[in-house]
Design brief:
By secondary structure, the chain is mainly α. Helix content is 70%, strand content 0%. It is built from 10 helices and no strands.
């Protein structure tokens, strides 16, 4: 059976002792530019994810009855809206995650190049495994990362912003420093929410031994062989990277919305006071 066969699976010892060792070893062996191998896939994935994420977030809030200036959602409702938006966005993101991992694995090995580029990787993956088994491998783990992750992402960001709104003011009174702080906090919260889901997903997408395994068997196998440290390997460097990256995402989002309002005054914006409920730009 599947559970029995995975029970005897041997996992190779980690190649790197930690994030710093991985960084220095990669630069020493392949040069600084090797750190950017496989960049197109995650770049396009990030663009698609954030576009769908913010669009879905705004739509879910409207579905929950939010009417700026009249009815505002609570922090919990905003966080739930983020969770739903994360689940939706995961279906757009997963194919990019699969291709990203396959390209990075190929570029990091000394084996013969299996793909001639990003498009060739997509074509070969679909031809060999089909769309569902190929491009949506690890979808369960991505859902388990995106749903709680975006619950915390939006919940923490909105909480930080709400706490900084001056008495009698609105969210539009906040400066960029608050958006940066809220975004950085949200980024760390996102990756802390359920980091093991990302670890499992990466193994399913990159490790041939796990290619056709389910989330739970792989999770338990990593836990049994490597312990909790194995499930959280890489969290530190990921959180460190997430803080500035997510700070910029939210700051740029808010500034972009401000720019849109200058051209279209009808763009939704909450005018509620702090004495009421939270203000938010859609």
């Amino acid at each position: 059976s599947q559970s029995k066969s995975i029970k005897h699976t041997k996992i190779k010892q980690p190649v790197y002792r930690g994030a710093i060792h991985c960084l220095t070893h990669t630069i020493r062996k392949n040069g600084v530019m090797s750190l950017y191998k496989g960049l197109p896939a995650p770049l396009m994935g990030s663009m698609a994810e954030n576009s769908v994420l913010f669009l879905s977030y705004g739509e879910v809030r409207r579905r929950l009855g939010e009417k700026p200036g009249e009815k505002e959602l609570t922090i919990f409702e905003l966080a739930c809206s983020g969770a739903v938006a994360g689940g939706i966005a995961s279906f757009f993101l997963n194919p990019f995650e699969v291709i990203k991992v396959q390209m990075q694995v190929m570029n990091s090995s000394n084996a013969v190049r299996q793909y001639n580029g990003l498009i060739d990787c997509v074509v070969q993956t679909v031809q060999k495994e089909g769309i569902v088994k190929g491009l949506y491998r690890g979808q369960t783990s991505l859902l388990l990362r995106e749903i709680p992750g975006n619950f915390c992402w939006y919940g923490v960001y909105e909480s930080v912003c709400f706490s900084q709104i001056p008495e009698g003011g609105t969210k539009r009174d906040l400066g960029i420093s608050t958006h940066l702080l809220g975004g950085a906090s949200a980024g760390v919260a996102y990756w802390t929410a359920f980091y093991p889901a990302d670890t499992v997903g990466s193994q399913i997408r990159a490790n041939p031994l796990y290619a056709n395994r389910g989330f739970v068997p792989v999770f338990l196998d990593i836990l049994r062989t490597e312990g909790w440290m194995g499930l959280y390997r890489g969290w530190g460097i990921t959180a460190l990277r997430a803080a500035p990256a997510h700070a910029l995402i939210f700051a740029m989002y808010e500034k972009t919305m401000d720019l849109f309002r200058k051209f279209d005054p009808q763009v939704e914006d909450s005018i509620d006071k702090r004495s009421g409920s939270i203000s938010h730009s859609s």
